[in-house]
């Protein structure tokens, strides 16, 4: 097959000779042109190690170049490739077809995000809410001069927040959150987990500022302990736990 | 009011209601179910001052809790400046009306108006 020059020249493919195959159903939707979404269906060969992202890229290479999908690192690091895979929010690069245990794999854009096209969604709101909780160290001497030492922490102090620092801003948690489905103003598990990440950092002095920001009518109290955020997080961040810790400060159980 | 203050009230009213409603149900068990709702018994209950204070407290606690819960549900259902203001004030007004209406029964009974 001739290589289309505009496609990145990458070694995507599972060999087409593979014995096993699945039916890959890809949601196609262009909000500027289409009334509603429809599914394109492709039979795609796969191996034990083939990821959903590789299958989609195979389709792009061999069948339909127009499928819109966002990805970059292919190793669960950049947070670009979140999508609904058989109804659950997952990273396409971190989900093997073999582990889905299904002959049909349906991929759709993430819930609770505006669709740009096909599998790509807009992240403006997620970033806006992330920025809102001031995701950086707040302290008067935060700007260091070149001859100063960095702020030291003990391993125990790092333990307090490091799990929450693993967030890759993939948005899967916001996509799984039942409050986010109807409350577009809700700050959301991603931003709340990051609020805790900085509050729990011994170098940070912005606790009161951040607690004030999340203590509003569409803030932390709109979490109702569903826990789906933590279930889908690919990095083990556990936003639901961070949210409960933050609530502890606001209810006076922690200081 | 800060949202955390409102939610502390929400959890507090829930906890207090559990205790008071338990007492309320135990009191109901002092007579048979049918007797409990007979005209004379209901009047007698309303005329016992300690019991009436407890009923009034349950009314206030659950009205505050219930209407704040309703406010939360409505805020999550739809967003918008005007809508959210209407929901918040509407719930406070409804809460006051319900407490007023419930209290009216108790007060009328005690003033011998029924
Ligand atoms: C006495 C027993 C009760 C307890 C322990 C209790 C406890 C709670 C708690 C903890 C919440 C917050 C849930 C959350 O944030 O996810 C809540 C919400 C709510 N409660 Fe109650 N409640 C009780 C009785 C009632 C009654 C009798 C009513 C109706 C008048 C009521 C109406 C509501 C509503 C409408 C909500 C909002 C829904 C929600 O946030 O999930 N509750 N309740
Ligand atoms: S908390 Fe987890 S699911 Fe949410 S954005 Fe961060 S990495 Fe993704
Ligand atoms: S491509 Fe980077 S997380 Fe999947």
Textual characterization of the structure:
The complex is a heterodimer of chains A (about 260) and B (about 110). Chain A has about 260 residues and is α+β, with helices and mostly antiparallel strands. Chain A folds into two domains: about 5-120, Ubiquitin-like (UB roll) (Roll); about 125-250, Fumarate Reductase Iron-sulfur Protein, Chain B, domain 2, CATH 1.10.1060. Helix content of chain A is about 30%, strand content about 15%. Chain A has helices at about 50-60, 95-100, 125-130, 155-160, 170-175, 180, 190-200, 205-215, 230, 240-250; strands at about 20-30, 40-45, 80-85, 90, 105-110, 115, 120. A five-stranded mixed β-sheet of chain A has the order 2-1-5-3-4. In chain A, α3 packs parallel to α7. Chain A is elongated. With about 110 residues, chain B is an all-alpha fold. Chain B has one domain: Fumarate reductase/succinate dehydrogenase, transmembrane subunit (3 helical TM bundles of succinate and fumarate reductases), CATH 1.20.1300.10. Chain B has five helices and no strands. The longest helix of chain B is centred in the last third of the chain and has 30 residues, at about 80-110. The radius of gyration of chain B is 17 Å and the shape is elongated. The model of chain B has no long low-confidence stretch (mean pLDDT about 95). The interface of A and B includes residues 179, 182 and 250 of A. Protoporphyrin IX containing FE (HEM) binds near residues 14, 21, 65, 69 and 73 of chain B.
Number of domains of chain A: 2
Supply Rg of chain B: 17 Å
Order of helices and strands of chain B: HHHHH
**Considering the protein shown, what is the CATH homologous superfamily of chain B?**
Fumarate reductase/succinate dehydrogenase, transmembrane subunit
Structurally, the number of domains of chain B stands at 1
User: Which class of secondary structure composition applies to the elements of chain B?
Assistant: mainly alpha
- CATH architecture call of chain B: Up-down Bundle
Oligomer: heterodimer
